[in-house]
Design a protein that fits this description.
Lipocalin; globular; single chain; twelve-stranded antiparallel β-barrel; mainly beta; three-stranded antiparallel β-sheet; about 280 residues
Amino acid sequence: MKRILTVAALLVAAASTLSATPLIGRGAGILKPLQFLGEVDFGYSQTGQKYNWTDSKWADLADTLKTSTVSAAVIAGLAPLKNWEVLLHAPLASKSQGSKSALGLGDVEVHTRYGIIAGKLSPVKLTAVGAVAFPTADKSAAPKLGDGKFAGALGAIATTKPLGKAVAHLRAAYWLNGNTNDTTKAGNMLEYVAKLDYDFSKMFQLWVSLVGTMQAKTEVNGTAVDKTEQDRHIGQFGAVVKPIPMLSIRPKAGLPIAALSKGGSIAPFTVGLDFWVILP
C-alpha cells in the first residue's frame, strides 16, 4: 500500500510543466568586477493536456485537473572578481488546481558562472556554470511550489561573436537530483537552449529559441518507476527593449512541441515578461 501511495504521489508531481532553468537563461557574457545584476521574471501558464502512456499521445485534462501558475522569479548577482559571477535565484509562485491553491517561495538556488573564454577577439565566448538547489518550498503546499529536494548542476554556455546583426547561443546543463523523501529520488535532468538573437538596434532585439529538458525516471527504494520520465521541447520567441542602457524589458512566449514531448502535463502556451537591470 505504501508503494502504491508513493507512486500515486509521483504521478501527481509529474504533472508539472518542465522548461529550462534560469541557470542557462543568459548568454556567455560575464559581468564586470563588482557589477550588479538584478532580474525579475514574470510568467503565466495553465496546463491543458496530460500524456497518455498507453496511446503515446496527449489527452485533454478536465478543468478541475488543470494547474494555473503565476510566477515571479527574483535573481540577484554580483561579479566579485574578473570573469566570475555569484547569483541567488528565489522563485515565487501562485498555483491553483480545482479547489486547491498555494502561494509562496519555491526552491532557492545559488548559481555561479565563470568565463573560460572571454576575450573580445575570440570568435566564441565560453562560460562554465554551476548551481545548488535547496528544498526551501513548503512541503505541504498543494499544488507543489517546489520539488522538495537538494540538487546540483554543471553546464556550459557558448555565445558566438556577432555575425552581422545576429548572435547565436548554445547552452546546456546536467542536474543531479536528490531525494524528495526517505524512499524517493527524482530523476536526473539534462536541459538545453539553442537561441538566435537579431539586433535591429542597440535598443531593440528579436530572438527565437528551442528549449528542452529531458528528465530520467523517478526511483523508489532504488528501483526506477515506469512512466515517470518527462521530455519537454518548447519553441520560444521574444523581444528585448532597452529604454535606457541599464534596463532590458523582455516579453516572451512559448509553444510546446508536443510531438517531441512526453510525460506529465503541458500548457498550450506560456507567456512571460522579464526585467533585467545591470548597474555599472
